[in-house]
Structure formats: C-alpha cells, structure tokens
Specification:
With 599 residues, the protein is of the alpha+beta class. It has helices at 33-56, 77-80, 85-91, 95-114, 138-144, 148-155, 159-170, 206-210, 229-235, 254-263, 266-285, 337-347, 351-364, 397-404, 417-423, 429-449, 472-479, and strands spanning 3-5, 16-17, 22-25, 128-129, 132-133, 182-183, 188-189, 318-320, 327-329, 368-370, 373-381, 384-389, 495-499, 504-505, 511-518, 522-529, 536-542, 549-555, 558-564, 566-571, 576-584. The strands form six sheets. It has a six-stranded mixed β-sheet with strand order 1-3-20-17-13-14. The longest helix has 24 residues, at 33-56. The chain is globular and about 65 Å long. The chain starts with a strand and ends in a 15-residue tail after the last strand.
C-alpha cells in the first residue's frame, strides 16, 4: 500500500508554512534497471577516481607534473583534473570523493604558490598570491575555479573554504587594496587580465600568455599542437588588447554569488546585480549585441579605438595559427552569459535572459544564402559580419530554456535527447545515458593504464583526459541539472538530496532517483530503495541552494499542500514510488546551508 502522512498537520486541505512534511513510501518494487545502473555508476566512478588520484597526485595533493604558467598549460589546469568530483559527491558519491578533491584543491594552492616564473613579470613571486591566480583572463580563471565554486555543495562548513569565499569575492569588490580590479564609478572590471594582484593595465605580450621558455620536442604534447616554444609564443602574439572590461569578466560574478550563498550578506548580491545590470545596459546601447571591450572611461570600445567588437577574445578576434598558417576565430563573449545566469538565479528577472534572446535574434537576422545554403555569422570585424557557418547562432540556448521554461526558448533545441526524455518522448534515454557513462568510466580507466608519461614529461592538463568522473547522466536524471562546465557556474538543479542519517549531502546509500517529467511549475521524481532489508530516509530539496519553494507533494491519489523548500521521504526496504511536486521557482533566498543547519 501507499501511505503519505504530514507530521504536525492540523489543517486538512490547507497549506502549512514552515513545516517539512514526511512522505512514507511503502510499496515494494522490483528494483528498476535504471536504479541499479545509477548505483553502479556511483560506485564505478568512486573506484576509478581512487585509482586516478593515486596515480597522479602525491600525499600532499600536489599534481605530479611540470608546473608552468600560461594559457597553454598553467595553474588552472591542475584542479581541472578533478572536474566533476564535487558534483559526484553532492549526488551521493562515496565520502572519500570529497576527501580526495579537497586534498587536490589544497595541494594545488600550495603547489602553485611555490611555483614561480623567471621571465613572466607578474608571477615571479608565485603564480598564486593569497591562494588565487595573480592575474589572468576569466576563460582560464573560470576553468581553474570550476571545482571551488561547487565545493560549498558538500563542504561549506570548512573554515578554509569560508575564508576563501570571502577573500575571493573581495578581490572584485575593492575590499583588498592590493587588488584594485573594479571601478565602481563606471561599473567595470578594469582589465580582461585580473586577479589577486589586481588588473594588468598594459598591453599583454606573447610571453605573458605563453609562460617561460621550455623545451617541447620529444618531451611534451601541447594541447594547441605547438611543436616548440617559439610557436607557443606565436600562438599568443596577438593577444594584446586586454585593458578595459570584457564579457569574460562576467564569470567573476560567481565569486560574490558564492559569498552571498554562504553568508546571506546583501552587499554581495548588490554588487553582482549592479555589475550585470551595467552589462545589460551596454547591450541595449549597442543594438542588443554585447560589446567585447569597455574602456576605462566606461565607453563602448573605449580601449580599442571605439570598436565595440575589438579586444582579445572579442567579436573580431581572428588570429593566425603558427604551425599551419591558417586562421582561428576566437570570439569568447558568449562565456559571459554566466553572469546573466547568476543575476537571474538571484532575482528571477527575465530581463537577464531576454538580453541574450535579443542578441541571438540580432545575429541570426544577418543570415544570408551562400551557395544555396542559409549561413549565419559568428564574428564581426572592420568589414562587418564574417565567419559564416550553416548553424544558427544558439549559444546558451539550453541554459535560457532551462531557466525560463518558456516554450519559445525551445528553439534550436528540437533534437536534445534529454529534453525529449523529460517530455516523455524518449523513454529509453535513461538507461542508454547511464550505460554510456559507465562505458566511459571503463574506457578512461583503461586509457590511464596505458599512460606512459612520467612526472617530468607531463603537463598539468595531460591527466585530464583520463579523469574518470562521469556525471552527465547522473546529473540529468537524478537532479535535472545543468552542466556547470568550464565557466565555473554554480549548480542549477531542479532537486537535490540529503542524507539525514549521515548528515551529508547526496542521496543515501542504496537509493536512486530519477526526474522523468519537468515543467515550469512541476517536477516528477521516482525514488527507489534498492536495499531489500533496511529502510532509508532522504531529504528532497527544491533547487541546489533551496532557491525554489515547494507548494504541494503528491503520492498516488494523495496531495498534501505546504510551503517550504524540502520534503522528507521515508523509504521502506525495497520500496519505490513517484512524487509530483508543485514548485515556485526562484522564490526563496538561496543558501548553501544544509536543511538541518537552517533556521
């Protein structure tokens, strides 16, 4: 039989505020294949991560590699080797996943504080200062912070983490006199290269980006394909125009967002909204297109001869590949959408998504027919739009739809297999996705066995291709979440789970969850206890940071109305059932704090 009770319910049919209901699921089920695959994938990930950590990290958490500064290979690549591990633990991965990735984070901070450049001026006293990159661009800073920005999902009580959250945010709020990155008058971050020693207020050089000279031949295999140091410097020789603000700097907004999630202090929220609003205003003034350079006086294109499309990683940033002589188009403005997501996350205000919708429409309106095909631009230079491709401009479209849940934002996502599954049109997706990730764990573990590099022939990003943590299927199915990716986003999920018995983040041992339907206001989740002998208890939370409000929970024919961020579910041995939650999204002040630590 199915049974649902609400503790302390004294108002039948009414709404109880501030009371966490308890749902009892007693119906025995044969464990579904998807549930067994989820548990298997969690276990396989943990075992492979242990093997990876033992192979590539020492007892201090130092990555066993040649330490370098630069865009080819640098400090940001070290923690990327444990990318996905914070999500894995927060989903319910083994306890030692947290121990290992915390050790790797602590170790790399010390390792790259001790590591110094000889010729690159700003890193001669250490590549890190105050446990943060001395100064670099936010494509690379973001990649290096993808682990840290999710550490709070499981480890926010960590005293060192708490200090860093405040310190890192302070670098961009002028709370550190040695890091004057921000101009509050013009609401700009003063250079595209910035960090704990402040902004780089001159043209950058190939040396700044490539790092100190090093022998490459017969020793290293560089990710960009350079065959020698001269080609490394040549790769970056045109990466000069960095003074002034750039959309990449919007990624830095995740730092004050972390501080707000941890402390609840309004100053962090205010700074974030003010900075993102300034960018929304610039888009409006620039015909709905985000400029890729803002001058020190706050004007569009102010440091690039008035060209809104100028600057390194800008709309017109096309360079020559030194080893081939071909052209490479490196427009990175779309990475800055993370800032719009952060502002939407705090406010639920559609204007942050609409600014990007308008840009998408503007770019695609430039469509023209070339050789009988519709072609769309990706770049803009002195002669107008260029770099024509057959696909419409659709960067960040999945994120926009996920946040808005508006049917009109499904455009360009017609073939997304996960969204079809959530619509009920792709029922085989769950098992296929879980089996795919299991196979990838196996493949990477086998490839790791075949790695013949030694610590003195290995760069920081070399082991990353063997990182076995595969969380895509688990993230989509268990919590219906977006990929934080290399842009260091916070975790956007529809649900999240906590284990009250073990007082930790993640679904309890033996349990599995699958969100198989999702609309703007409803979430349907199937919960299963695969343990046939022992009961399990799980807290289901609306949103990664309790940012959503649950208004009702339905089990079978019984619906209970209440108002709060969590539901407690008790699963009998071998039991399973389906809950349908009605949810008011982005309606609460978000917080990192676990349910039992909140007032």
């Amino acid at each position: 039989m199915r049974r649902l009770t609400l503790l302390l319910l004294f108002c039948v049919g009414g709404t109880v505020s501030g009371v966490e209901p308890t749902v009892h699921i007693d119906t025995a089920v044969t464990p579904p294949t998807w549930a067994l695959l989820e548990r298997q994938l969690l276990d396989a990930n943990a075992a492979a991560c242990r093997k990876f950590f033992a192979r590539y990290f020492d007892e201090r958490g130092f990555l066993m590699c040649v330490e370098r500064w630069g865009g080819d290979d640098g400090p940001d690549d070290a923690p990327e080797n444990v990318g996905g591990w914070a999500q894995l633990h927060a989903l319910g991965g083994a306890d030692d996943i947290l121990t290992m990735y915390r050790t790797a984070w602590e170790g790399h901070l010390r390792q790259y504080t001790l590591a110094k450049t000889v010729e690159v001026p700003f890193a001669r006293d250490g590549m890190y200062y105050k446990e943060f990159p001395v100064m670099f661009d936010w494509q690379h800073n973001g990649e290096g912070l993808r682990l840290f920005n999710l550490q709070g999902l499981s480890d926010y009580q960590n005293n060192r983490y708490q200090h860093r959250v405040r310190r890192y945010a302070g670098f961009y709020m002028n709370e550190d006199p040695g890091a004057p990155n921000y101009d509050p008058k013009h609401k700009i971050i003063r250079s595209m290269i910035n960090g704990s020693r402040g902004p780089l207020m001159r043209k950058a050089t190939g040396l700044d980006w490539a790092g100190d000279p090093i022998d490459i031949e017969n020793r290293f295999d560089l990710g960009h394909g350079e065959r020698n140091y001269a080609e490394m410097v040549a790769h970056f020789k045109d990466y000069n125009d960095v003074v002034g603000d750039h959309p990449l700097n919007l990624i830095a907004t995740t730092l004050p967002l972390n501080a707000y999630l941890l402390t609840g202090q309004k100053k962090y929220r205010t700074w974030l909204i003010d900075y993102v609003d300034a960018w929304v205003g610039r888009m409006k003034r620039n015909g709905d297109i985000i400029p890729s350079n803002i001058g020190l006086d706050g004007t569009i294109g102010g440091e690039t001869d008035g060209k809104w499309y100028g600057g390194t990683y800008g709309w017109g940033f096309t360079v020559i590949v030194p080893q081939t002589g071909g052209l490479a188009h490196r427009n990175r403005q779309y990475w800055g959408f993370v800032g719009m997501m952060n502002a939407y996350f705090l406010t639920g205000d559609d204007k942050y998504l609409d600014a990007w919708r308008k840009q998408t429409a503007r770019v695609n309106a430039q469509k023209k027919v070339i050789d009988g095909r519709d072609m769309y631009p990706r770049m803009y230079g002195d002669d107008g739009w260029y770099n024509w491709v057959p696909q419409p401009y659709s960067f960040n479209q999945l994120e926009i739809y996920y946040l808005s849940m508006k049917p009109g934002d499904r455009r360009y996502l017609e073939n997304d297999a996960w969204l079809k599954f959530l619509d009920g049109d792709n029922n085989s997706y769950a098992e296929q996705a879980l089996r795919r990730d299991l196979a990838e764990v196996r493949r990477r573990a086998a490839a790791m066995d075949g790695d013949t590099t030694t610590p003195d022939t290995r760069l920081a990003d070399d082991p990353a291709k063997y990182n076995p943590a595969q969380v895509t299927a688990l993230r989509q199915l268990m919590v219906a979440g977006l990929d934080p990716g290399r842009r260091a986003s916070v975790w956007h999920t529809r649900l999240r789970y906590f284990d009250p018995a073990r007082r930790r983040a993640g679904i309890p041992d033996d349990c599995a969850a699958m969100i198989d339907r999702m609309t703007d206001s409803t979430t349907r989740v199937r919960l299963v206890n695969t343990n046939q002998l022992e009961s399990r208890e799980v807290i289901v939370q609306a949103g990664s940071y309790a940012e959503h409000t649950i208004h009702s929970v339905q089990l079978g024919d019984t619906t209970t109305r209440f108002k709060g961020p969590t539901v407690r579910v008790k699963l009998a041995p071998g039991a399973g059932g389906t809950l349908t939650l009605t949810v008011d999204r982005h309606s609460r002040q978000p917080t990192m704090h676990f349910p039992w630590d909140r007032n």
